[in-house]
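pasting for ref
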Amino acid sequence: MTTNRMQQPSKSTDAKVMNPADPNPSGKQVNPALKQKPLDLKSKMEGQTRYLHDMNFPGQLIGAIYRSPYAHARIKRINVEKARQVEGVHAVITGDDVPNHKYGPTKFKDWNILAKDRVLFIGDEIAAVAAETREAAEQALALIEVELEPLEGVFDPEDAMASGAPQIHEDVELNRPMKVDVARGDLEEGKKKATIVKGGRYVSNRIYQGHLEPVGAIAFWSEEEGITIWAPSHIPYRAREAYAAGFGLPEDKVRIIVPPIGGSFGAKYVLKVHVIAAALAMVTGRHVKIILDRHEDMITAHPRVPLTFDIEIGADAEGNFVYKDLTVYADAGARVYWSPNVIATACTRADNIYHFHNVKSTGYLVYTNNSPTTCMRGFGNAEMLFAVESVIDEIALELGMDPAELRLKNIVHSGDTTLHGYRLDTCNLDECIEKVKELSGWNRRKELPPYRGLGLAVANHVSGFRAIDPRFDGSTAVIRIKPGGFVEVETGEIELGQGMTMTYARIASRVLGIPEDEILVKSGDTGRYPFGIGTLASRSTVMGGNAVQKAAESLLREIQQLGVQTLGEGAVFEEGVVKHDGKTYSLGDVVDWFRARHAGEELTVKETYVPDTELPDATYFGHPSPNYPFAAHVAEVEVDPDTGRTKVVGYWAVHDSGTILHETMAKSQVLGAVAQGIGWVTMEDLIVQEGKVMNPSMMDYRMPGAKDMPDVQVHFVQEADPHGPFGAKSLGEVALDPVPGAIANAIAHATGRRGQVLPMSAERVWMSLQS
């Protein structure tokens, strides 16, 4: 008999595929409903997965939203009587018809359900319609009469903080809801030690997440159960809390069910469309479905937070960093989504890669009359590293030092406690740098032809972040044996296409010694499954995975004890079966034993993993994550001097993400991240002028395709981390974090011109070559 033995990878090896378990040793037939390998991939490839758009309920109504055409205006009058007379229309609601509680997903409670007195950005929600058909809903929207008095708007964060600027929220002076102040060491002493100082102003732009599945929701209301919302949110418990506050309801009167998610990258956390669908459902007593078309989504998109960095880094004559001085301006737009976490990350995370010794960071989160901004993969770290890694290359150039050697001289190592308190039990960033140099042929930099360049960048990230929710930062898993001997795992974390359910099945399989396709992972229902913070901050593998491992180990002990109780001493559970006196008993037999002793109940265990982390204090000092992944990337580019067009012709990525649980999924994460980074640096730009999105179409918003991708070589330096499931660390976001810096440095090497504004479009590169 064979078992699923997933070999511990050795340090500094290529990732090895963890072999799935062989068929069940007991020979029982596998339930076809549980045949999920490779989970839902086959269903998605064949178009069988039922996303929100595919879901419909009897008597369902179609919802639509009337939005502001102005970036800032006072609402003088709303008349919806004509709209209500349209055949098939069941409800038309305005701000007067809904609760008026201030709420929001963070401590900044600046949301409403519908605008009441003023609109604050183009696309702000003024009224909503529920009708039998989309045509009737659109006809009703056209008949809504709204008189708006345009007001002066402000669209740049620095302008918004100026004295006399229009005040967007009456209780927030200088339009500045948040200021970040971080200081370590003595900045002025550090500046005295600096022989060379480099820096300048770097700008990261708005990026549309570009998820394939449109944004939407279905909602229903009943007096007994309250609000039920079907929504592709990957933080449903936090969303439930915010929505309950918005309606003035207890949390147990809001239930969120998460259907399969067709991509997010940070866009689908907590959204107003969910709340508006719920408000319409409460009025009509029917299911209400709202699906935004791509144009509507893009004009009101909550894109990546655009950041402006004024940065200086100083080094001594030997290349030792002696200080970093930073000021960041972040455009929150008209409401706060997750931008506070983004600017806090930008002001701190990169300081935990290098020994800067003396740092000062000041961050300003600012309201403007642009569409609200939110997080996207990388969460402020990728943006910051674009600036940091660019400046470090400038220092290396001035010193006449190899950029890789300059980094090796200053990076953190295993056993270090970083400037802001991160405790690094494992860190193989030095090996990542050495390996990526080897794979890319780094030493050929001086031999490359004109307009061809190699660029290096490094990155760190977290595996969950304690400050996301100061109240709790762990994860809970429930695991049970079903009749027939099949295993179910329940979690509060969310699958959004990253392969979380396969990872959890693999972890449970490894503990229990049963095939992965006999383990069904369930999540995505706040009314059924355990509480979870959700899928953000690269937390699902480590946080949820540790909980699954802990629960599976507890179940293993329960099975072992039950075997002894039933069969006598010498009974042992291994290779997926109970063995005793030369006989084997399946998990189906175990279920029968347990049910006979417990009045038909299923054998179920519940375990919670609570990490040994420290909430960062008021100065942002703390140990916020169980462990920290690292990466080093090299990009090779070719720039056309006649057009400025940049083509990435080679890419090498080396990662320290602990033990790799699944090589194929891990490599896919890196490949997807590189594609996103190529798009971000060379072409993607959500262009906004005075609050208006100028390219709200997938035809006008250019994203990379297959022909834009080079050959990407991925390598993993594997060392088991003591705080991850079977030694794993996170990978999803750290795979993107170094990409902008690597490509930007490659372009600078190819052209001799340093780009400081994203994207480095053909036009920008061409103009730099003319200067």
